[in-house]
Each structure stands twice: as C-alpha cells, then as structure tokens.
Amino acid sequence: HSMGGLICRAFLQNTKLGSAEARGAVDKVFTYATPHNGIDMRIVRNVPGWLSFGDINNFNRDKMASYLAVPKGDDVSVVKNFPPERIFNLVGTDSRDYTVAGGISAWAAGDASDGLVRLENATTHGAGPDGRDVSSPRAFVHRSHSGHYGIVNSEEGYQNLTRFLFGKLRVDGILDIDDITLPVEVQKALDDGKTVRASYQFEIAASVRGCQWQMTRREVRENSAIFRTYDDLFPGKDRSKRKPDRTKSPHLFSIFLDPSKSVKASKSVSFAFDIKVLVPDYVVDGLLFMKRHYEGGFIYRELILVEAFPDETAPAGWRIKYGYQDMNPGKPGKDVETRPLSKGKPNAGIAFDIPIEQNARPGLSGTLRIEARPWK
User: Fold this and answer.
1) Looking at CB atoms within 10 Å, which of 119, 125, 131, 274 has the fewest?
2) CA–CA distance from 315 to each of 238, 345, 350 (Å)?
3) Contact residues for 108 (Cβ-Cβ < 8 A; gap 6+)
4) Total-model pTM
5) How distant, in Å, are the alpha carbons of 19, 141, 195, 234, 290 from that of 284?
6) Exposed, middle or buried: residue 85 (CB in 10 Å: 0-12, 13-18, 19+)?
7) What digits encode the pLDDT tens for the residues 193-251?
C-alpha cells in the first residue's frame, strides 16, 4: 500500500538494493494506491525535494528516480527489471473521504485523486515481452487512500487481488473507434467553415457473475472517466481526412478470472461490463454549443455479458460466448469467432470483436475488441 509499493519497486528495479536471489523469488506485485509517479499538489505541483517533513520528499520525482534507478524526468512510473504486466495497480477515486490534515491533503491533491495520490500518478508501465511499452493492468475503485472508506479495506481490492494472484484467465477490453459523427447543427457549422472542438468521456463499470460489487468503475461523477479529445482519437489537420490513432483507443478494463470461484459446474467464468460514451461538450468558434444538451446524455451505452468455458480443444483453452443484457438478461448466448493474438502462437491468447454501428447523429462506429490470455 502507498509507499510500500515504491519499496517493492525499489528492491525489484534497483540492483544496488537487495539480492538477485530475492528478486528472482517475486512472481507478481499488487499495489494499493501507490504514487508510482510521485505526489502532486495544487500550486506547487510535485512535492519539492527540500520538503523533508514526514519524509514527504520521498515522493519527489528526482529522489524517486534515484532509489528506483530510472532516469530523472516527469515520468518515474516506468518499470525496469520486472515484467510490467505482472504488476497490478489498484487506483482509488474517492478524494472526499480522505480526511487527513483536516481535508487539506484531499484539497491539495484535487478531485481526480484518492485524497493523496492523483489517478494519473497511480499506475505503472514498461517494456513488454516484445520491447514495446505496455501499461500494467489496473482497476479503479471508489475508495479513498486510507481510513474507514479506504482502499485497503475494500472488497473490490481483495477480489481484484485474489484473482490477479490465483486466476487463470486475463481479459482486456479496448474500444477502437472508426468514426464519430456530429449533431446536424454542429456538422453544418463545421461545413460553413467554423472551428469545432469536441471532447469525449467514456464511462465503464465491470463486475463478475454472482457478486454485488464491481471489479472496476470509472465515472464522470467520480472524476475518473476516461477522457479523449477528437484530436487525440483522430490526429491531423482541420478539414482533412483523418485516420484513427489506435494507440489512443480507450482501454476499458483488465479483468482476471478464477475458475475456482465459479458458481457453475462447468467451471465457466463470466463477467459483465457497462460501457457508456457521453454526449460531449461541443465548442463552436470558442463558444459552448448547448442546444439539445441534456446532462448525462450518452451517444452509446450497452451492458455486455461475456462467459468463458474451459475447453482443451479450443484456441488458448477457452471457448467464449457473449450477449447483450437488454436482449437476453443474464445469459450470454452468442458463440464468438476468435483469432490468435500472436501469429503462430495459438495458445498465447485470443481476441474477438463486438461491432458498433450507429446511424443516429451524434453517433459512433467502431469495435469493442476483447482480448483473452491464459494467466498463471
């Protein structure tokens, strides 16, 4: 928890600390509310190195770079000498219930935090097996940094922890957007030569079958929704034909599933995810476009169920079905056609697509890409 996660990283990453034998004994790391990229506060930003009261300068990025054995800079959340995909980051999103220092800490950290650690600083990344940068799996839960409503005492934390340590299947969800259309009036303004800007917020909540809590949740009202501008999703010049940047596709969730917790004799594992793409705040020539605006309105929303069955004859050892809650409540009924994640490695993992096609304006078209990997 918190600084404890940095201590773990220091022993794993810094060869001057500990021993190779000890590092070799570590298989996985699970961090609760750890400030992997330091602590930032209003006005002063990153805590200054000279502020030694309570050893708070341990969260200064220059000092962190020293004990984590990474280059100095604005990003010290990079993992070295350990697979970043085997570190799980549990991120708290409830700043209001963190009452340390009479609430001053929560005010200084800001709303998009757990009261001490900002969301943007609570995760890790590093070079994956192929050398490309990958993000560590993470979950977002509406808990504060510590206290009665703290993240350590949370059911969500325990359930993510046990499944990460002992689960057999990892499932990731990514939203690949091919196109987003504008309302008729905004499209007309764009066609007339006016400058249009749009920012999109994506909400996601995922839960496993038979349980009354969520594995991860990111919502606007909890200051944790995924945020992308149109220019992020489709980089390029105004009035030019733009192609989507898949590196900016919203990563919705990483879920770990454990057949030993299954409520079915078949040992199938199942989860559901509720995805919502909110209607954005359009800006036309620098002015907010509020016509037809209803707070909380969405472009797209769907509750999707996924169930995976152990099957030695299936690719990667799993047969998968999915379905829509509004069509067949509680029962995924569609068999999916999967493809291998890696050519020539059918057991390394599989993926399948759930298409999205909307004719209404505003609307979007794209694909929900689901990737499943054996986990141990």
Assistant:
1) 131
2) 44, 10, 7
3) 41, 42
4) 0.93
5) 59, 35, 6, 18, 10
6) buried
7) 899 999 999 999 999 999 999 999 999 999 999 999 999 999 988 777 889 999 999 99
